[in-house]
Amino acid sequence: MNDPTQDPRFHQDPYPAYAALRSRCPVQRLANGPEGRASYVVTGYAEAREALADARLSKDTAAFFAGKGSSRRLHPAVARTMLASDPPRHTRLRKLVTKAFTPGAVAELRPFIAHVTDELLDRWPVGQQADFVADLAVPLPVAVICELLGVPQDDRPDVRRWSGELFAAGRPDVIDAASHTLADYMTDLIAAKRLGPGERLLDRLIAARDGDDRLSEEELVSLAVLLLVAGHETTTHFLGNAALALLRHPAELDRLRADPDGIRTLLDELLRYDSPVSTATFRFTTEAVTLGGTDIPAGVPVLVALGAANRDPRRFPSPDLLDGDRDAAGHLGFGHGIHRCVGAPLALAEAEIALRTALVRFPRLRLAVAPERLQWRRTRLVRGLTSLPVLT
User: Region 221-240: what's the mean pLDDT?
Assistant: First the structure.
């Protein structure tokens, strides 16, 4: 069948299209995949979870596109990240960064997250209009991941702009150029840190590269770029989507106003309800696979629609309802399996602190425009708002 995700209305509200796909079959062939090739889309929860954990679905993008010819010129450090690799390479690279995102490591960052959140909210005009995305959801995760990595303060605005350009849907020239700019910047920063080492995550990765951990220079740059981009882009959309969901559900919002600490138990449901990563990153079959009763041949892309899986009524009854009493811990908002988001604990900490603080400091926070007037990013990979005007 034709790909309904190409409909211009899809980005505004993808869930009816996902539901229609799932009702026909939770796994089905689409006529238009990446580069014009046929692909398969997974919209059922059980099938998505199975696909995400199936080693026969490779993430080695370079292997898939080898010899196929392309006009794209992504920098190798961006094209061949840890996220686009399989074990044992993926296992080795992930091990190097996992310690930075343990609950203990994230706890050490909480005071910084709270400080930046307060600084940003200090600039919001009381009783006037602010932009929740531009004035909080974008700058906070950038500041946090740059602090974690050790990106100098003066460089952070440029880093934020280049990272945004990597997600410029429909503009491959902009994406390719941004990949080179970011990789070149990170190469220069690594060189500078070698001359003056510090204690940040990037310094520890440099030490691993210069030690005995079998980390190549390209892998070092690639890890740094991936952590920088993935470390804030998806968290930005997590914050924006969660804020909108709360502002559109007065009963849940009133519960949080009465008990702001209740945000901790609501985060999983917010991630399930409107997942910031709508489609999991690229996978393809290395051999024939049967998934959800559908036979998928070898060598074709499989798109795992996380947003659709999280609205599967077989797993989450009344899925289009934001339900603060729901146990949504099994959501796929962070993925599943060996590629599950390594930065999930940090994203949850940022969301908890930012949302709770905003609601406490601005108890009358509400939408400044009708929901149908909001503009969404025009990309299938992530789901996020370009802006979220609110009245304080």
Answer: 89
